[in-house]
Recover the amino acids of this structure.
């Protein structure tokens, strides 16, 4: 019987695979790597691509990951898969956007307090309207 | 004493309110269940992440990541505050903000400034009114936020840390204990403090890093922090729903009590009116 190791493939939002495997082939940034049991400790980022695993008994399965991190311990392989498509520029843009949102929120006049004020004014106006309607009815 | 008609309209309006609150309670209950599922689904990732970080601490890395090193002098600290977007969830947000203010007090005494990153519009509103320095912000993430929505927001704080603008980073969110209890929690994100080197367990090994240690660790650390924040956001949503459910249940119950009391008053008023009418008729007949 072939030697086996434990393999976990998880993403932030869900668990993709967990079980006993014979081989894991993953798309590392420097090219595809094949991991067999008793591989020395290794850690590397992954490119978006296909992770192929040979399960205990020889059955193969492939899982798509959009990048992530591969950690290898002699008897455990862990793949932390990203759910997001990441690139340095994209992250940068997202960061800028978050900052902009903060600035806008600080400038924005329609904060919670203003909203409460507006609501109070609205209630006042509604009450006045009701009063006017009542007076009109009485006149008729 | 209020007349019968007045009481009746009052009852009617309270009944309408009660209908709304009980509907909100049911919606919150079903959303809470979903949020709890999501919490459970995201747990394997953060568990594995923690494990890898733990392994890293035991490995003899030739490169020490700045996130793992304690900075001796603290000039400015950062807080990532996770709050809700909507209200009507009891004291959930206020308790959280109180926890932040408490932990801030110590820093203020040492003359340390604070930068905020707020997730959720309630937090943004509150710290804006406090005239706090909000340097990054996000809101309206919905019930099922993805880690995508958080990357930029978190990166602003990480960049600030890298550049030395802040020397500590804290995460503040509500901890989901159970449906009845949510406790605000302030935990230190940076420098990563949960990792303590235990001398007996030190093995002399190191990872093979592809392509090199710095790049790999940078990648990993960013993801680690993001996963912690994400977990916090997910947990906070479950808390929000639970708190709203409880608050709305209390509101519905209170409305019920109010209606009972008003009903009693209404019946009394009605009875009094009838009695009065009868006595008037009787006394009128006697006078004739």
């Amino acid at each position: 019987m072939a030697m086996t190791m434990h393999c976990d493939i998880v993403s932030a939002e869900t668990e993709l695979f967990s079980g006993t495997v014979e081989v894991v082939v993953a798309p590392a940034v420097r090219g595809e790597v094949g991991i067999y049991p008793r591989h020395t400790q290794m850690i590397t980022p992954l490119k978006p691509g296909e992770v192929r695993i040979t399960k205990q008994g020889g059955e193969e399965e492939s899982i798509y990951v959009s990048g992530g991190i591969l950690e290898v311990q002699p008897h455990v392989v862990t793949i932390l898969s990203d759910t997001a498509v990441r690139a340095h520029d994209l992250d940068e843009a997202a960061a800028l956007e978050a900052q902009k949102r903060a600035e806008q929120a600080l400038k924005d006049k329609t904060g919670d307090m203003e909203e409460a004020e507006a609501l109070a004014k609205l209630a006042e106006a509604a009450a006045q309207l009701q009063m006017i309607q009542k007076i009109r009815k009485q006149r008729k | 004493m209020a007349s019968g008609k007045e009481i009746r309209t009052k009852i009617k309006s309270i009944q309408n309110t009660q209908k709304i609150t009980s509907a909100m309670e049911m919606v919150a209950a079903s959303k809470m269940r979903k949020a709890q599922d999501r919490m459970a689904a995201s747990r394997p990732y953060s568990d594995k992440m923690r494990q890898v970080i733990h392994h890293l601490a035991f490995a003899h890395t030739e490169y020490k990541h700045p996130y793992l090193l304690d900075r001796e002098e603290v000039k400015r600290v950062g807080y990532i505050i996770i709050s809700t977007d909507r209200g009507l969830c009891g004291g959930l947000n206020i308790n959280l903000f109180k926890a932040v203010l408490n932990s801030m007090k110590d820093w203020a005494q040492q003359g340390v400034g604070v930068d905020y990153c707020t997730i959720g519009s309630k937090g943004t509103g509150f710290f804006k009114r406090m005239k706090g320095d909000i340097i990054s912000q996000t809101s309206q993430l919905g019930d099922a936020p993805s880690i995508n929505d958080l990357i930029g927001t978190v990166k602003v704080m990480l960049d600030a840390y890298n550049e030395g603008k802040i020397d500590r980073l804290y995460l503040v969110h509500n901890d989901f204990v159970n449906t009845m209890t949510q406790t605000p929690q302030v935990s230190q994100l940076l420098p990563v403090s949960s990792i303590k080197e235990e001398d007996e367990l030190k093995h002399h090994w190191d990872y093979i890093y592809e392509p090199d240690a710095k790049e790999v660790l940078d990648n990993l650390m960013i993801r680690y922090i993001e996963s912690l924040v994400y977990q916090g956001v997910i947990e906070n949503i479950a808390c929000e729903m639970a708190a709203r459910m409880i608050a709305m249940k209390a509101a519905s119950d209170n409305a019920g009590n109010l209606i009972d009391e008003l009903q009693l008053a209404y019946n009394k008023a009605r009875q009094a009116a009838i009695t009065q009418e009868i006595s008037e008729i009787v006394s009128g007949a006697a006078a004739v």
